[in-house]
Each structure stands twice: as structure tokens, then as C-alpha cells.
UniProtKB/TrEMBL annotation:
Pfam families in the record: Epimerase
Protein name according to UniProt: 3-beta hydroxysteroid dehydrogenase
Domain of life where this protein originates: Bacteria
MF terms (GO), sorted A to Z: aldehyde dehydrogenase (NAD+) activity
Annotated InterPro entries: Epimerase_deHydtase (IPR001509), NAD(P)-bd_dom_sf (IPR036291), NAD(P)-dependent_oxidoreduct (IPR051783)
SUPFAM superfamilies referenced in this protein's UniProt entry, alphabetically: NAD(P)-binding Rossmann-fold domains
Gene Ontology CC: cytoplasm
Organism classification: Bacteria, Bacillati, Actinomycetota, Actinomycetes, Micromonosporales
Every NAD-dependent epimerase/dehydratase domain range: 3-84
Length: 293
């Protein structure tokens, strides 16, 4: 299969591209910079220059491929306005890609987050939130999945709060970055809330499996660790960086503060049973041992 990939040099994308190539697929990847283009070319992909906001470029990429994987998302989470811009940009991109694939029966796999359900572990059958800081993302993913009735084999891979590799990435990565800036490995609240996690290379395998075989209109969970307590995550970060560990106000984490404070474990039991996905890489707590001061 010839696959169009956006976000191919991020934490997840840099694992997805080689996973696809190793499985015999070919890749056309969106690149917005010379640095990204070189990395993608070195990995063995063809490059299409452009940005996620270039909707005509996205349509052209999808038009010449057998399927698509959308992984691109903004990197500025400093304010609610910046996060909202990234959500809006992603929503427009998904709409453009889906429109290009209408009636083709070709697959498109997009990324979203695992939902949170008060009082229990979230499953693949739970809906994504459509309100709050990332509610727009839930609405755009739902719209893409609804294209299953219009000849698009659309699917979503829901990533947990932390997708990691060599101790970097996801919510745990944001905790690490803040710890380096502030000198304290902080966690919101009492730290008993749980965050699910997955290694990037395990997640990449699931993206490939979903692209190859998932039915239209379905959602899957790339969850390896059902839920690590946030204060346990912070404790490893503090020890590895030689910093004190302490509770800090949720608002210290900007627009993600309310999300950081939630207990949000998730399961991938259905995904493993149906698609045969088996994560084999190190857990988050194990992988954080790779952090260096």
C-alpha cells in the first residue's frame, strides 16, 4: 500500500514511518521544513512539501495514495488560544483528507486521545469528550468516523496521555520539561490520578494494523500501561534529574492543567483481542530511567 502520512517526524510519526516501510508499504510524507524532509528521506519515504494548513497539498497527497495516516498536531500548548488553534487546524485537515477519500473505500487512520470516564477505566466503546480544551478534536474525529457510511474506511487510534521513547514524549515529557525549567519535579493535586501510556514503537505497530485491516468507523486504544500514578511518574523524573518532587497547582501546567488533574486510566483489551496487538516495548516507568540530568 502507498500511504500518505502527516506528522511523520514526531514522536509517533518517526516510529510509524519505519514500521510501514518494514512491512512492505511505501510512504509519501508531508514535510514543512528542510530538516523534516531530510529525516523522512533518510528513513526511506518520499516527501511532499507543505504544512498541515495547506489543504490543497493534503488533498493532493491523499489523491495519489492508497490510504492515509494523520499524525500531525501543533506543538504550542502554552495558552488556551494556542491549543485551540492547533485543534482547529487539525479539524480542517481531517475534513479535507476525508473529503478527498469519499467513495473510494480507501483507509484513513487518525490520531486522538483516550477518553476519561469518572469512576472506571475507559474502553474503546466510550465516546471522546466534545467539550473542554480538546473538545473540538473529539468532534472532528467523530465526523471522520461518520464518513464510514460514505465510502471511507475511516478509523481512529486513541493514544494515551504519554507516548514515550527513551524517556521522552507525551504528558510525562511535559512534566520533565517543566521540572527542568522550574527545578521541581511537580505533579498536580495529590498525584494519585492515573495516566495510561504506550511506547511509540508499540503504537506504530497498531497504526499499521488498523490501516491494514480495521473496519470502517472504528476506534482502537494504543494502551500498554493502563494507568501509572502521576506522583510515581514525577518521582522517577525527580530522581533521574536530581530534583525535589512535590505537588504543584494544576494551573502551573497551563491549558493542560484541568486534564492533568484527572484520573484517566484506559484499557486496550478489545484492541488486543480483535487486532492481535501485543505491546512488547518498555513501560513508561522503565523508559523514564533513560532520562539524563
Amino acid at each position: 500500500m502507498h500511504v500518505f502520512v502527516t506528522g511523520g517526524t514526531g514522536t509517533v510519526g518517526s516510529a510509524v514511518v519505519p514500521e510501514l516501510l518494514a512491512a512492505g508499504h511505501t510512504v509519501l510524507a508531508l514535510a514543512r521544513s528542510d530538516k523534516s524532509a531530510r529525516a523522512l528521506t533518510d528513513a526511506g519515504a518520499r516527501v511532499l512539501r507543505g504544512e498541515l494548513a495547506d489543504l490543497d497539498v493534503l488533498r493532493a497527497g491523499a489523491a495519489q495514495c492508497d490510504g492515509a495516516i494523520n499524525l500531525a498536531f501543533g506543538t504550542d500548548y502554552s495558552t488556551e488560544e494556542a491549543l485551540a488553534r492547533s485543534v482547529a487546524e487539525e479539524s480542517a485537515a481531517l475534513a479535507a483528507l476525508g473529503e478527498e477519500l469519499l467513495g473510494s473505500d480507501r483507509p484513513i487512520v487518525t490520531v486522538s486521545g483516550t477518553p476519561w470516564v469518572p469512576g472506571r477505566v475507559a474502553t474503546e466503546g466510550d465516546p471522546l469528550p466534545i467539550e473542554g480544551p480538546v473538545g473540538g478534536r473529539g468532534r472532528s474525529v467523530a465526523a471522520l468516523l461518520e464518513l464510514a457510511s460514505h465510502g471511507v474506511r475511516s478509523a481512529a487510534v486513541r493514544l494515551p496521555r504519554t507516548v514515550h521513547d527513551q524517556g521522552k514524549g507525551g504528558f510525562a515529557g511535559l512534566l520533565t520539561d517543566q521540572a527542568r525549567r522550574t527545578g521541581v519535579a511537580g505533579y498536580p493535586g495529590d498525584g494519585t490520578q492515573r495516566w495510561p501510556a504506550v511506547h511509540a514503537r508499540d503504537a506504530a505497530v497498531l497504526f499499521r494494523l488498523v490501516l491494514e485491516s480495521a473496519p470502517a468507523g472504528t476506534a482502537w486504544h494504543a494502551v500498554a500501561d493502563e494507568g501509572d500514578r502521576v506522583r510515581d511518574i514525577a518521582a522517577v523524573i525527580g530522581r533521574r534529574l536530581g530534583l525535589p518532587v512535590d505537588s504543584v497547582p494544576p494551573e502551573s501546567f497551563g491549558p493542560f492543567g484541568p486534564i492533568f488533574a484527572l484520573d484517566q486510566p484506559a484499557t486496550s483489551a478489545h484492541t488486543r483481542e480483535v487486532l492481535g496487538w501485543r505491546p512488547t516495548r518498555p513501560s513508561l516507568i522503565e523508559d523514564l530511567e533513560n532520562l539524563r540530568p
